[in-house]
Specification:
CATH architecture: Up-down Bundle
Shape: elongated
Order of helices and strands: HHHHH
Oligomer: single chain
Strand content: under 5%
Number of domains: 1
Number of helices: 5
Low-confidence stretches: 9-29
CATH topology: Methane Monooxygenase Hydroxylase, Chain G, domain 1
Amino acid sequence: MDAVRERARPPTTSTRWARSGSAASSPTAGRSAIRCTGEDGRDQLAHIESKILSLRDRMYTARGRELAEERHAVVARFVERFEAEVAGER
C-alpha cells in the first residue's frame, strides 16, 4: 500500500516550478521563474491560462456556469497571487 501511495504522491513545489536556484529566488526573474518543463515539457501556467480558465465559457447548464464562475475566480486569484509572489511583490 505504501508503494502505491508513494507513486501517487504529487511532485513537490520545488520540483514542479523553476528548478534553477537563481531563477526561482530572483524577484526580477519574472514569468520565466514559473515555467515548468515536466516530462511532457508543458508550461503549467500556460495550461492553467489556456485550458482551466476557459472552462467556465464551455458550461451548458445554469448550475454548471454558476459552479464554473466560482471556481474560475479561485484559480484566477491563485494565478494573480502566484505571479505577484514570483515578481517579488508579495
